[in-house]
Amino acid sequence: MRLTGAALLFLAAAPGEAANRKLFEKIGKWEVERDFAVEGPHACLAAKLYKDKSDEDAENAIVLKREEGAIVISLGYENWGWDKKEEVEVAFLLDKRMVLKDSKWTGDDTILVTSFPDKILPDLVGAKKIVLRFSDGDADFDLAGLPDAYDALKRCDAAASVAADLGRAVAPAPAPAPQIAAAPPAAAPAPQVAAVPPAATTQAAVPLPVAPATPSAAAVPAAQPAPSAAPVSPALPNKERIAVYFFGSMVQEALKTCDIRSTGKQRMDLDAKLASMKAEMAPVEAEIRQSVKEALAAKPCPGGADLAKVERTLQNFIDKSPEAFAAQMETEAAAAPKEAAAGANP
């Protein structure tokens, strides 16, 4: 078996070190990861790895990555054997509907990769399967769960975009070039004293002492003004506290319109917790609020497992310090892939 797991597909879809990627969210069989080595609004990918029972448990994979105006699709099938950079032309269908009779893909061993304009997204997200129709038969790929996975992919990209904006917002401005003080005007030359004729002896003449010349006022250089201190940028909170504040702000906004179980005391405590962090978040408040707005626009209210997680996590957010809550979320994110693997292999 050449297709050995999701990591192989991640590498094919997003070149870079696997160590730079971290699980953002798991939705059913889909996993959304963010590549921290990639800057900008398209640093995430969504992948689904599964075994096809109708094909002797052959391993299949789908990886989606958003780009500007496009969606990149990588498909993996363990029984393929394409040459590196092999050009493949094949009919592309969504369910039974023909989308493109001669779609062009690039092969590499068990992987085929292509990109489509993002106008295909409504049909792609609404489909149940991708079909590649070869001359010797069809290759089907199961898209079940994609609507929720694609929402998570957009949230991940939105978070990456905010992080990039924050980085640009707090980047130190280049130091101004040092000002070189103008050279003071040259001192007025000392008045010349007429030489005294030597005495008629063989001893060397001794010059008369000359009083030092008093410089005129014009010859005294004007005092240079003291350089003004460079403006000091406000300190930026660390990324863990920013992430905690972002999460709390998301919940705060969602509570206004979504059916999330909470008590009046919890809502008051949440407001107080965020208010206590507001001053330190001033340098990034606008970016965080914009990110919250975009994330809620993509998925206004949590549902299913997401809703249960929000309700379960709300009290922890209130009770724990920002650092302790960030550590808890980090631990849960790291444990998610292991729990998923344990569930898949009882």
Topology of helices and strands:
Elements: H1 6-13, E1 21-27, E2 30-35, E3 44-52, E4 58-67, E5 70-77, E6 82-94, E7 97-109, E8 111-117, H2 121-126, E9 129-134, E10 137-142, H3 146-170, H4 239-257, H5 264-278, H6 285-298, H7 305-319, H8 322-344
Antiparallel strand pairs: 1-2, 2-3, 3-4, 4-5, 5-8, 6-7, 6-9, 7-8, 9-10
Provide a concise account of the structure shown.
The protein has 346 residues and is of the alpha+beta class.
Q: How would you describe this protein?
A:
The protein is an alpha+beta fold. It is built from 8 helices and 10 strands. The protein has helices at 6-13, 121-126, 146-170, 239-257, 264-278, 285-298, 305-319, 322-344, and strands at 21-27, 30-35, 44-52, 58-67, 70-77, 82-94, 97-109, 111-117, 129-134, 137-142. Strands 1-2-3-4-5-8-7-6-9-10 form a 10-stranded antiparallel β-sheet, with helices on both faces. The radius of gyration is 35 Å and the shape is elongated. The model is unreliable at 1-7, 169-175, 177-183 and 190-220 (pLDDT under 50).
